[in-house]
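Lab notebook: predicted structure, single chain.

Context: the supervisor wants predicted structures on file for every construct in the current expression panel, including those that have not yet been purified. This is the next one on the list. No modifications to the sequence; it matches the entry in the shared construct table.
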Amino acid sequence: MAEVNVRELLAAETPDLAQVEPEVKRIAALRGETRFRRIQTIQNGLAVLTKEQRQHLARHERHVAGGMMGGGMSMGRGRMAPGGMMGHGSQSGGQPGAGAAPAAPGQAAPQPTPGTSGEHRH
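Prediction complete. Output recorded below exactly as produced.
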């Protein structure tokens, strides 16, 4: 809604920057809060994993990131960065077997684990 307000304010023949500024700052604050909450959620998720699970996740991250062009996750020092498997930028959506490399020509593509649709649910 705030973005709409800014667009409407800027559409005026002579925009009132005194009205635009607080809207732009409000948008920036909301984005910052959203980013922090996402980081907090990822860290809370990582905190409940065992050492072995974190290691498995790190290995999977390297495999997935190797086949992607910059949209992968990064777990530098055990922390997952935005765009990662536990966030919305995941290829796999957290489903085992999903996000696997495409099949070679003449081979069948990998199928989702039975009982899952392969879709990411919120």
